[in-house]
Design goal:
Layout lengths: L4 H13 L3 H7 L10 E9 L5 E10 L4 E5 L6 H7 L11 E8 L2 E2 L5 H7 E4 L11 H5 L1 H5 L6 H14 L3 H4 L12 H14 L4 E5 L7 H14 L4 E5 L3 H7 L2 E6 L2 E7 H6 L4 H7 L5
Parallel strand pairs: 3-8, 3-9, 6-7, 7-8
Antiparallel strand pairs: 1-2, 1-4, 4-5, 9-10
Bound molecules: adenosine-5'-triphosphate and magnesium ion.
Amino acid sequence: MESTVLEKKEVEVKIKAQPNKINNMMQNPIENIESPIINIDQLSVSYGGDKYSINDVSAGIAKNKITAIMGPSGCGKSTLLRAINRMHELNPDTHNKGTVYLGEEDIYKMNPILLRRKIGMVFQRPNPFPTMSIYDNVIAGYLLNGIKLKRREKDEIVEKSLREVGLWSEVKDSLHNKGTFLSGGQQQRLCIARALAYTPEIILLDEPTSALDPIATAKIEDLLVKLKKDFTIVLVTHNMSQAARISDYSMFMYLGELVEYGKTKQMFTMPKDKRTEEYLTGKFG
Ligand SMILES: Nc1ncnc2c1ncn2[C@@H]1O[C@H](COP(=O)(O)OP(=O)(O)OP(=O)(O)O)[C@@H](O)[C@H]1O
Ligand SMILES: [Mg+2]
């Protein structure tokens, strides 16, 4: 379909605006994020029609840190997270305004398969592939994308990834059993191992512990803190104490808007916006 004159104008403005994207960031109340690995630049996402589920969100994501996204149900946390690796596009009516940069690259101009290799994702419910063994689940990214590896390479990737998530000693004698026989917490660590095995720079996690018991949750939290040495982590969570415990930066979203974003310590002790304060003190949620 032919784009309208107005749309063309918007494209021109966008292209001109790109070198100034850091300036855009400065207008937003984001502090102390030097050389962010991701720049979310005036991003709005609609699942169809004129209704936008997130509106004009700008934020830099700090490298090798944990950034938590909090807010009440339906405020757009998952939409924002999915838009960072274009998973929301699985819904065909989706459209965006604004964009997201990975380093200097506009992710909406990248090949989505390559993008998702750089930015991996872990979901709320542990979802190991039910027909695959633990071993094949770890290297599923390679198997599903037709990337051939030598047996030795596969063995190395499987062991390294399972060690990284603390699962190796628990499963090393049952690598060829199905992943679905593991406990919920083990399955979620297997899913994190699957994401890590595909060598991403960034890992997005959408409420990864909400289906887990406190012990399994604590294991995942310890793991995320350990992993941030090598990866950048963005974590959607409903659990405020989890955000307070493990994140370096926090976002508070409300009705599709990024209301407040800053250092977690500061947000929890001295929130700037009344809505953030009310949410954090349990007045709504
Ligand atoms: N696939 C979809 N199609 C249409 N609308 C959607 C879709 N996914 C989400 N939405 C709408 O977008 C808005 C934001 O939803 P989103 O799932 O991002 O919220 P959330 O903050 O993650 O909520 P929760 O805490 O319940 O997971 C909601 O109004 C929701 O109904
Ligand atoms: Mg969600």
